[in-house]
Design goal:
This protein is α/β, with parallel strands linked by helices. It contains 14 helices and 21 strands. The strands form 6 sheets. It has a 6-stranded parallel beta sheet with strand order 2-1-3-4-5-6, with helices on both faces. Helix 13 runs parallel beside helix 14. The protein is globular. The relative contact order is 0.08.
């Protein structure tokens, strides 16, 4: 089967996207090449998510289709967060006997060895480690990067926060931070390879600590004379400091955008979520960032319909969203996750949750539209990430998406563009030569 084709389907967060790049690296090192269609693949990998129930439902739905689509002899692998849940691998093995290899989050780096074992014995492999045996197993895996001008770099794994709705600490483990020199070495190698944007990844990057070095120390040490953008995700509001806000104003490489998930605008709900901050503290931190960087692009996650959420609680969330004025907002209906404290709390009916998220989406649409309109007439620096004919697409420093026409601009170029129009949240401009 060597020199065959592989197909990877990724669900969930940016961490999963990068881990799929590592899986692709393993397969390419064994002589496989990527293909877009599952019907053509000799190796099919589903890298799963379990943050919301809908992600799990999609996986099982996809598996049902793959059963009839996969060509004879193709190896089907399922791994990631869904299979790492207690008892999930066993349930999957029983429900889907046509899945050949099942792994968890801690041993995806062993997929190559599991393929060899399956080919040698013909016997299904179900192996989910309870914890990480050696972080270097994953870090020594060369990634086949697929994110264009952007490259992901893990700085840490796991989470210690145990928000009452979240399954992540149970499937990713406690926080483990990579050595700072290894991270800087990765950044340097990627810049030499021509990447123009580096995104640092972690469940809570602000709690990064290695020896006496903190997250802000890491960001300062990533400064270089090479022209590039440095981004990170995800931040936890309780750990964001004024020092980080000040660094946004002085750094030559930090993108002027911040993703700071608030989840809710009600103190009662925030406490029930075990978030360890109040709405007042969150708004104070936003004000501090804007004091240092007035045009900072802000995005966030907001969850609607958390157990016991009242109309008053929801109105406080709407109020916070209006007060902050996010450029972009990722909005979700609360999804029960077995094994989390929130699963045992009194639940809201689906109709109420749906009505509330519809109201939130409508409010945020108006905010995004207003912010986009205010950008007309301004000149912004764009990192070109895509080009179709003469039509170029890219992101501004504040993460706003901009389209413009240029015969000369190429993917990976930094160019100045004057914004000429805004349609809803989409910006269009003219390149300045």
């Amino acid at each position: 089967m060597m020199n065959g084709k592989y197909h990877i389907q990724t669900y969930g967060c940016q961490m999963n996207v990068h881990e799929s790049e590592k899986i692709a690296g393993i397969l390419q090192a064994r002589g496989f090449c990527s293909c877009d269609n599952v019907e053509d693949a000799d190796i099919i990998v589903l890298n799963t998510c379990c943050v919301r129930e809908t992600a799990e439902t999609k996986v099982y739905g996809h598996l049902g289709r793959i059963k009839s689509q996969k060509k004879r002899g193709a190896i089907l692998i399922v791994g990631g967060c869904m299979t790492q849940q207690a008892g999930a691998a066993e349930r999957l093995a029983k429900r889907c006997p046509f899945v050949d290899i099942i792994v968890g989050t801690f041993n995806q780096s062993q997929i190559g060895e599991y393929i060899d074992l399956f080919l040698h014995t013909g016997k299904r492999v179900v192996d989910v480690w309870e914890s990480e045996k050696d972080m270097s197993l994953s870090e020594n895996t060369a990634a086949a990067r697929t994110s264009g001008v952007n490259a992901w770099v893990n700085i840490m794994y796991g989470c210690n926060n145990f928000c009452t709705y979240c399954i992540v600490p149970y499937v990713r483990g406690r926080e483990r931070c990579r050595p700072i020199d290894d991270i800087l070495s990765d950044i340097d190698a990627l810049l030499k390879s021509g990447y123009k944007q580096i995104t640092l990844l972690g469940q809570n990057v602000n709690s990064y600590k290695y020896g006496d070095k903190t997250f802000t120390d890491l960001l300062k040490m990533a400064e270089t004379d090479v022209k590039y953008r440095l981004k990170f995700m995800t931040s936890h509001p309780k750990d964001v400091s004024p020092t980080l806000a000040e660094l946004f104003a002085t750094s030559k490489v930090l993108s002027k955008s911040l993703h700071l998930p608030v989840q809710a605008g009600s103190n009662r709900i925030l406490q029930a979520m075990n978030r360890h901050y109040t709405r007042e503290q969150y708004l104070d931190k936003i004000a501090t960032f804007r004091e240092f960087v007035p045009d900072l692009g802000l995005s966030s996650d907001v969850m609607v319909g958390f157990p016991t959420e009242t109309e008053e609680d929801f109105l406080q969330t709407l109020d916070l969203v209006e007060k902050v004025g996010y450029n972009n907002l990722f909005m979700f209906i609360y999804s029960r996750r077995s094994g989390t404290p929130a699963d045992k709390m009194p639940q809201l009916d689906y109709k109420t949750k749906q009505q509330r998220i519809d109201r939130l989406i409508k409010r945020q649409f108006e905010i995004s539209k207003r912010i986009a309109s205010n950008a007309v007439g301004k000149t912004v620096e764009i990192l070109v990430s895509e080009k179709k004919g003469d039509r170029c697409f890219g992101k501004a420093q504040n993460d706003a998406a901009v389209a413009f026409d240029s015969k000369t601009a190429q993917i990976g170029d930094f160019v100045n563009v004057k914004i000429t129009s805004a349609k809803n949240a989409n910006l269009t401009g003219d390149i300045i030569i």
